[in-house]
Amino acid sequence: METFKIADKEFNSRLFTGTGKFKNSQLMKEALEASESELVTVALKRVDVSDADDQILTHLNHSRINLLPNTSGVRTAKEAVFAANLAREALETNWVKLEIHPDPKYLMPDPIETLKATEELAKQGFIVLPYIHADPVLCKRLEDAGTAAVMPLGSPIGSNKGLKTIDFLDIIIEQANVPVIVDAGIGAPSDAARAMEIGADACLVNTAIAVSDNPVQMAIAFKTAIEAGRMAYEAKLASPVKHAAASSPLTAFLDEL
What we know:
Structural class: alpha/beta
Radius of gyration: 20 Å
Order of helices and strands: EEEHEHEHEHEHEHEHEHHH
Strand content: 15-25%
Strand order of the largest sheet: 5-4-3-10-9
């Protein structure tokens, strides 16, 4: 399976993971290790960066893991830029997952504020990975603004409904000049495999792993599904046809009867 790059970092794993909703930090650690994920997002509001023994950060102290702080909880571009700068100072990384969702019920990302924040953060030298609707026009505008990747949703965050936006993901992937990471709504390994089969560069999965009865086993299932989906994409899927076509020609066999 091919490696891929975002900005100046190269990744072997195309499964990105989150740290929310696990029953405890030890279980989170074991699941993340099983996933072999190399990019793990963490909400700045959930960690105490002044505490050397913070339960989340301590378990993420692994040479393989790159931390991706997110701005979850902010409602405007101004708040997002402020949160990103706090994260850069506290965690010593200029990478940020940009999340701006003013509606607490559906957590829909605000496209206008997201574009504003991306423009400002890119000017300040951040590697910006914005969480967005599956909007092909917005993706091109974000590219112009200097985004390092785009993270369109498959369905509402945490819903486990799968790839309800697949027609738009197809367009985004076709047009993208930056990596496309499908984020939010992925509920089953088959969803992740499908996203990879159509050419997504990576998937970010949190809830589906964290709330399963066996997060470690589910992490392995997602890892395997993403590898299978990517290999299928690289091998080129056969095109669907309208009529039946025998996989083994029968003509010669029938002629002998």
